[in-house]
Structures are given as C-alpha cells and as structure tokens.
Write a structure and sequence with these properties.
The protein has 102 residues and is mainly alpha-helical. The protein has helices spanning 7-12, 26-61, 64-67, 73-85, 89-92, and strands at residues 13-15, 21-23. A two-stranded antiparallel ribbon has the order 1-2. α2 (26-61) packs parallel to α4 (73-85). The longest helix has 36 residues, at 26-61.
C-alpha cells in the first residue's frame, strides 16, 4: 500500500504507481512544456500544409514560407481552420500575419 504523500511533496514532484515521488526540476518541467508546444506547432504546420496542398495545389504551398514563420499557436489554429473553410487563397491571406511572431 502506498504511503500518503503530503501536498507539498506532491506539488514538487510526480507520484509513481508505488506512491514514491519522482522529483523533477523546474528546468526539466520547462523543457517538457517547450517540447509539447513545439510538437503542437509542428502538427499545426503539417495540417495547414496538407490542407493547402489538397485544396489549392501548388499555389497554396507557395504560402508556406510565410506560414512557417508563425510562432503563435492560436494564430496557427485559426489559420488551420481558415484553410479548411476558405473558398480561395484571397480569403486565407488575412489570417497570415505580417509579423510572424503573431
């Protein structure tokens, strides 16, 4: 039977199946979160690319250099949805920010 873990201890580490605490540093947690965010960004970029290719062919793929500069996940999510529903590339262009950090 696992031993009870104090709230302080559980906030500082992760409890294993045996009730033991596996400690993780703040640097490690930051690295894990950064990796998750980058993985999500890559997935969104792939979704946009596949959608642009299937809906607009080579003309859609020509937007990728601008799109690949986008860092903001909310912007990429909105762009992904817009790529699915847009009737033309002209409808999609307003979703591509002039400032790629957006």
């Amino acid at each position: 039977m696992p031993l009870p873990v104090s709230p302080l201890a559980s906030s500082l580490g992760r409890q294993t199946a045996h009730g033991l605490i596996k400690w993780s540093s703040s640097v490690e947690r930051i690295g894990i979160e950064k990796g998750r965010q980058e993985g999500l960004r890559e997935g969104l970029l792939k979704a946009v690319a596949l959608t642009l290719q299937s809906r607009f062919g080579q003309a859609g793929l020509e937007l990728l250099p601008e799109i690949e500069c986008i860092q903001n996940l909310a912007t990429l999510e909105a762009l992904t949805q817009a790529a699915i529903t847009a009737q033309s590339l002209d409808e999609l262009r307003p979703f591509i920010p002039k400032n790629p950090a957006q």
